[in-house]
Amino acid sequence: MSLEIKDHNKSKRVKVIGLKETSLDKLIFPFKKHTITSLEYKPFSRFTLAKSLDEVFEGKLSKSLVKIVNDRESGTAIIEPEINNKKFDKDFLVKLSTGLAYLMGNPNFDSMTGKYYARFYVKHQDSSDSYLRKAYTNLDLHTDGTYVKEKTDWLIMTKMEEQGVSGGESVILHLDDWEHLDELSNNPIGQQNFTWGSPKSKNIEYKVEHPVFRKDKNGKPIISYIDQFPEPKNMDQGLFLQRLSDCLEESKNKIEFPLPVGSTIFSNNYFWLHGRKPFKENTNLSRELLRIRGTFFN
Question: Is position 228 within any domain?
């Protein structure tokens, strides 16, 4: 079974993997073997699910994903399944996202939901303590896992459904395309330890310390940053974070695009930042997202 892989129309760094309905049909039976509950309670069942997914594509899906997400020149794949038919429901999307994740590595425990994944809504009204659910506020560019002890090598985000939506486009930026990378990654302040906390909704009681910028095994800069969670210790750190935030949001090399319903964006968390534009106000606004983040297999 062949895979359709092409460059995204906004950037050659982003690869689009199309999954045809005829291929997805072959997953209906093996996916039915696993309930959502069994996937949550029995981690080994997720590997079986991933194997069924990869077998349909004769091993080419796993090889393509691993190559793309690990490659500094690309690092992001968008998986677009043909799921216009009602036979592909939201449970199917959870299973497909789970299979994709376990072709890459082991998901982290998501403290926000107490599972290996998180599902959450963005709606017109919101009383949360995080920008994540605030529909009419810009979700600034960031990476995930800044406030937890676990490594976060990669991130999956799947758009489960939406209605009443205008705006809310995905925004991503490759670190190597950022105009201010040399200036800020080489700033000694960015290499100091910062304290990172999190709001109550994240269900993390501890704080961690790490710098904004490090180097990978090839000596290239990688980033761990989100605007809401660092707790600067002094004026230098506070002003550095303001400069960092301004330079990221003002970048002319950000990529903005609508993510189709049912699609999954799969990104390397070390050199891709992601965010979201504000939605246009609508009392009927509703978008459901699924998130999985984790580490590469050794």
Answer: no
